[in-house]
Amino acid sequence: MTEAQSETTEQEPLFAAAGGGLAILLKVEVPADAICWHRFFGAMQLALLCLLFLSGGLMAFAYTPVPGTAYDSVDYFQFSLPLGNVVRGLHHYAWNLLLIVMGLHLLRALILGAYKAPRQIVWISGVAFFLVIPLFIITGDLLPWDQKGYWSTQVRFSIIASIPVVGDFLVQLFRGGSLTGIVALTRLYVLHILLLPCALVLLIGLHLYFLATRGISGPLSDDEIPRPKALFMPTIVNRWLALFILTAIGMGLVAWHWPAALGDPADPTDSAFIPRPEWWVLFLNQLVAIFKGPFMVLGSAIIPGGLVFLLGALPFLDRSPERRPSKRMGVMVAAAVVLAAVTVLSVMGYVEHFVRPEH
Amino acid sequence: MSKWLIAGIAALLGAAMVFAAAPSPDDTGVMVITARHVKTPPAGIDDLAWQGLASVQIPVAGRLEMADVKGTVSTKALFSDDELYFLLSWEDPTCSTIKESWQFEGGKWVHLKGDEDRIALLFEIDRINQFSSKSCTVVCHSPADLPRSQWKLATRSPSEKGDLWHWKAARSAPYRHADDGWLTVAGTPSGSYRETGRRYDAGGGGDIKNETPDGARPLYMQDPARKPSAPGFLLLEEAVPIKDYSIFEAGDVISYRLPVKPVGSRFDVKADSQYADGRWTVMLHRKLNTGQEDDVVFDVRRRFSFAIAVFDDSGADHSKATRSLVLIFKR
To answer: B8 contacts in A (CB within 8 Å)?
Structure first.
């Protein structure tokens, strides 16, 4: 047997398996409203995550995780490489939009009772995104090595350090020393581009698997009208591709017109710099500001952690099969109270840090 | 209902994008000077293009023994498709352009007391470590552990490069430019200028001292056959050697520093200036990209840290300097 023949023989089962998988996918039918004009947050989340992976991968080619040089490499990528500003802008806008879309996706599922049996595990895996995605942002913030990222990271380290028992250990684990320098940058970089993406891919896979096995939530109507079906391939896949392309073009144009900001290079000796919190942590920041001193842990860990825990446990706290919001007033009121609290705290934080920044 | 829902979601997503796109104010109170785009560049100090533009009052303050000396530089910036324009105005009770001019007095030549007013802008060509947070203290007062007499205007490593625009009321204003130089590490300690990290851009210019080899009297005078192109100043190209010193009368004044016609990259920064009502107003402008290695390239998508120093009748020490400033461009 020649080498070429041997290679072909070895490859045949692979091709056969791939072809078989494709044949199965071509026959799979899913509810036609899996991705449609009024239900696209989950699909958009996936599109945004793909854009984040793509843009992040491209930026990694030029990035150097060394203090000082890191800033220059980001500056070089954004301003000297063709379309660098668009790619970095896409990355910037994609995570901002991702947080919004995630919030809306969760809110929709909560209002429509999509967490109810048999989709509890779909809900829990979805809530888990709220633990992973912020870690991406936190680890990514330091990477440009600019003033904002550096000092925001310092603030976060001090908040983490306030967690009893494990706080100092966690900070030491991230920072690798008493100062935020090359070790911290390397560790956060590895987390950002290797460990967290692996965790996220696993989470996406699990979420989609649970979605496929437990099904997507149906309409609230009591009618037993069979739901229209559509082929997963090509119909649903094409819809997703269209959404992906539209999102990419839209954000690419935004990034082209309003490039992502790159602040001044980090100066670890400039303790006068007081970073302003990102919009998505304004409420957390305000919580930390309310609970000072020994009670700081309430605002930094117990309340936010408790909320995430309650969110994850929701399918087990609200076990009735009833999905109509009007019949689930307890959950609706509780959700409205939490949402109002987050909004009020965010507005307070905005006023404090942006409208009249006395510091 | 669903229409309202979609409209609400679209509005929320749009607002989110706008919010993410909006440049937030600087966190440290770093002053931001925004250069606005104009189709027709300003022709001069009094051009209408400047009038609708709000100025930024940049505080300047002295250091060390001049710590109580304070003031403001009113700053405006514009940019066209290929040039950047600054309009800088600051209070100065005296218009100083004497620069130790010669005066014939009591049968001999003496130097008049007085120096010149100046303003200097420093940008980064290649990043100067901590310049964006500590401003020109990282290049003006270095090394900090040495006595002041040994301080050099220099960067700390060869990879750090600054772009220095230096407008001088007596030596560059007559040629309507700001001397364009660049900043690097301190040079060899031979000669007062070379000891610093200041370097001239490619080309020619500057000034020469108008004195005889023994330093007792001026060497040049205005060419009587030529009309002075900058009245009150003696330009080297319009000067002729003095052959007969007996023609001078008591009180006659001749410039001590003769501006040399600037050429090349040293002549990149053009200037218009005016002294009126106790204020200097200077318009500086330069191509966004001169194509020279010794000049900062103004990519309008970026932000640029810079600093300003104002000198009042001073030949050496600062009078007043700014903290960190940032220049951004907006169309």
So the answer is: none
Buried b (16+ CB within 10 A) or exposed e, A107-139: ebbbbbbbbbeebbbbbbbbbbbbeebebbbbb
Q: Give the separation between CA B181 and CA B267, rounded to whole angstroms.
A: 10
Neighbours of B318 (CB within 10 A): 22
Q: Does B108 touch chain A (CB under 8 A)?
A: no
Q: B36 and chain A: CB distance < 8 Å anywhere?
A: no
CA distance B164 to chain A (A): 20
3-state DSSP assignment of residue A294: helix
Return d(Cα A268, Cα A147) in angstroms, integer: 8
Is a pLDDT exceeding 70 seen at residue A9?
no
ipTM: 0.77
Contact B47, A139 (CB under 8 A): no
Does a structural domain hold residue B304? yes
3-class state of residue B175 by DSSP: helix
Please give the average per-residue pLDDT across A79-99, as a whole number: 96
Report the C-alpha gap between A138 and A142 in whole angstroms: 8
In this predicted model, what pLDDT tens digit does every residue of B59-109 receive, in sequence order?
888 766 666 778 899 999 999 999 999 999 999 999 999 999 999 998 999
Give Cα B181 to chain centroid, integer Å.
10
Query: Residue B269 carries which DSSP code?
Result: E
Residue A288's closest CA among A336, A340, A353, A337? Answer: A353
Name chain A contacts of B324, Cβ cutoff 8 Å. Answer: 264
What secondary structure letter does DSSP report for A302?
Answer: I
Is B28 in the A-facing interface, judged by CB distances under 8 Å? yes
- A219 closest CA partner among A45, A37, A42, A34: A34
Q: Is A273's CB within 8 Å of B133's CB?
A: yes
| Cβ of residue A205 closer than 8 Å to a chain B Cβ | no
On whether the CB atoms of residues A233 and A27 are closer than 8 A, the answer is: no
pLDDT in tens, A278-306: 999 999 989 988 888 888 888 888 999 99
CB contact under 8 A, A97 and B130: no
Q: Which residue among A72, A96, A259 sits closest to B301, beta carbon to beta carbon? A: A259
- Domain of residue B136, residue span: 10-105+110-208+258-330
Residue B225 lies in a domain: no
Average pLDDT over residues B200-206: 95
B278 within a domain of the structure (yes/no)? yes
Nearest by CB to residue B130, choosing from A37, A258, A267, is A267
Residues of B in contact with A76 (CB under 8 A): none
Count of domains forming chain B: 1
- Closest residue on chain A to B331 (Cα): A257
CA-nearest residue to A256 within chain B is B301
A-chain residues near B133 (CB < 8 A)? 147, 264, 267, 269-270, 273
Q: Is the pTM of this model over 0.90?
A: no
Specify if B243 maps to a domain: no
Q: Which of A93, A267, A270 sits opposite B17 (nearest CB)?
A: A93
Residue B99 is part of a domain; what is its CATH number? Answer: 2.60.40.1190
Residue A246, both tokens: 């539209």
Beta carbons of A89 and A77 less than 8 angstroms apart? no
